[in-house]
Amino acid sequence: MTLTSTRSGSRPASGDPFALSDTDAYAAWRSKKLARQPRRAQDLIVKISDPNTLTGAERDALLRRCRSANLVIYQCAVPMDKPAVRRLGDQLGLTHLDDNLCADNDSVSSLEVRAGGIHAGYIPYTDRTLNWHTDGYYNPPDQRIRAFVLHCIRNASKGGVNQLLDPELAYILLRDENPEYIRALMHPEAMTIPANLRDTAIRRAQSGPVFSVEQATGALHMRYTARTRSIQWRNDPATRNALRCLVEILSHQTPYVIRHRLQPGQGLVCNNVLHNRSAFSNDAGDGRLLYRARYYDRIKDTDTNRFLRETDHALAE
Fold first, then answer.
1. Residue 149 sits in a domain of what CATH number?
2. Number of domains comprising the chain
3. Angle at 142 between CA 139 and CA 144, to 5 degrees
4. Residue 68 resides in a domain
5. Is residue 179 part of a domain?
6. In a 3-state reduction of DSSP, which class is residue 276?
7. Which domain holds residue 64?
8. Which tens digit of pLDDT belongs to each residue from 23-73?
9. Is residue 80 part of a domain?
10. What long-range pairs does 244-253 form, CB within 8 A, spacing at least 24?
């Protein structure tokens, strides 16, 4: 599915682009969004010298890409440990870490193949395919995952490729197909993740929308998983049709899907974009290892209003 865009004038959009009744605001935002959208992973890569102390130019380059695409790939010139991952996040406004079930004691997860213990049964800790999802889709609203950092220490000998899709583009593709799909996926009971009952009730059932709008920033948030077991979708025709359309979008490789295999020293910073991972294998050595830090914060200065102001300024020049 391909989208077309025409550049709008320099007058800033008014209203809410995510309100189905505000078609003018949506059209203005949509045009600016598509005009700024990168198509290749290479366009998203920013080189940084020291993750502990970003230069002003490095920080601006990281944030500029996040405003346009909700994600950036960095290439670090020096080795990074977990404290360096956290300090990098700090400089981008990411300070409130999610201490999830499988995280290490410092709340940063070490993603590698683990056969037993608390990690058993969780696909991120296997070499299997990880299907499309956003992180923390099972979290309660007060622990919403708005951003994460994924840093590669060692990659696999084969495979382990990520595909990435900005949720705002998924929203556009669905809304252009049928605005009622958005209405269905914004229902507060659109998607329910049943309680996790391994041994004891680790996590309560969580119901909520797929798409929602953050009141403080006007930013779009998405919670989604392509899992087909241990999930309950609202049982009505609109939700089923919307879900079918979303699955088709994710299955047919729209030109806006970014495909990239993180190399050692590279990392991803994003506003919890849709992502997956191909299966992988190792011929020898210590195996694939990535550090993942999840945050309740959104990346600083990447709200929708800031994006509109920046694009209006660029178009006026």
1. 3.60.130.10
2. 1
3. 50
4. yes
5. yes
6. strand
7. 23-316
8. 999 999 999 999 999 989 999 999 999 999 999 999 999 999 999 999 999
9. yes
10. 245/174, 245/177, 245/178, 245/181, 246/170, 246/174, 246/181, 246/185, 249/1, 249/170, 249/173, 249/174, 250/132, 250/165, 250/170, 250/226, 250/274, 252/1
